[in-house]
Amino acid sequence: MLTMSDLQDQADRRWRDEFEWHLSIVPVLMDVLVDATLPVIPVGLGSRFDKDQITGGGYRDNMAMADRIDTGPVADARDLWDWVIGYTLAVSSWLNHDVPAPYAADIPPVVDRRVNADPLTARGLALVTAGWLIDRADRIVLLTELEDHRAEMFRTIRHLRGRYGVFNHPRRARPTQCTICGEMTVHTRWATSTDGRPRSIEVKTCSTCGDEHREDEGTRP
Ligand SMILES: [Zn+2]
């Protein structure tokens, strides 16, 4: 029989899985989005070398020009990064809320809301930021005040993941056993519910037999 403490452990584990799954996508998504911003600059034969020649300042000038663009990957990169840094700063201020004077505040590694114009640097900054958050998941789970912000940020991540076809397996996903075929090939992903519930739902898919189970299955009116 499950005790209250078992149920709490399950809920915490689910929250943590969801947290890691979404944040693990952010670095590669930033890489893809920033990389996709480069062709907005007029180019000769399409190489980055040409772009640097034309704008004179390379990536930095490209992004400065891109600052005036309101749609497409440029706007999506700004939007995503703004959600992530905004959330990270909010987490930091909540975590440091009760830190007494002699102790140093726990400050996130990146505080710049501007998107770095180099794809690999943008990926690296997202990686350390996501890592910082994941390392503090045990404390962040208690910050119920930030749940709405987190849920909205995760919706943005899922949306952009679909739009730009970023389907790598997040780094900590471990396959589990299939209840149909018995193979250890069930992967969990998270999706937007089809029945209108605000939080993300779990979707478990077996890559051996194709069995799929959605958490919101059978709950549609
Ligand atoms: Zn299976």
What does this structure look like?
This protein has 221 residues and is mostly helical. The chain has two domains: 4-173, no CATH class; 174-221, N-terminal domain of TfIIb (Single Sheet), CATH 2.20.25. The chain has helices spanning 4-37, 48-55, 59-66, 72-95, 119-135, 137-140, 147-164, and strands spanning 186-191, 201-206, 212-214. The protein has a three-stranded antiparallel β-sheet. Strand 2 (201-206) and strand 3 form a beta hairpin. The protein is globular. The chain starts with a helix and ends in a 7-residue tail after the last strand. The model is unreliable at 41-58 (pLDDT under 50). The structure holds zinc ion. Residues 178, 180-181, 183, 206, 208-209, 211 line the site of zinc ion.
Give short descriptive properties of this protein.
221 residues; mainly alpha; N-terminal domain of TfIIb; 2 domains; three-stranded antiparallel beta sheet; globular; binds zinc ion
Overall pLDDT, averaged?
82
Total of DSSP H or I helical runs spanning 4+ residues? 7
Number of domains: 2
- Could you tell me the radius of gyration in angstroms? 20 Å
Determine the N-to-C terminus distance: 31 Å
Q: Based on CA inertia axes, which overall geometry fits?
A: globular
Q: Main sheet: which strands, in order across?
A: 1-2-3
Number of strand elements: 3
Bound molecules: zinc ion
> Uncertain segments of ≥5 residues (pLDDT<50)?
41-58
Structural class: mainly alpha
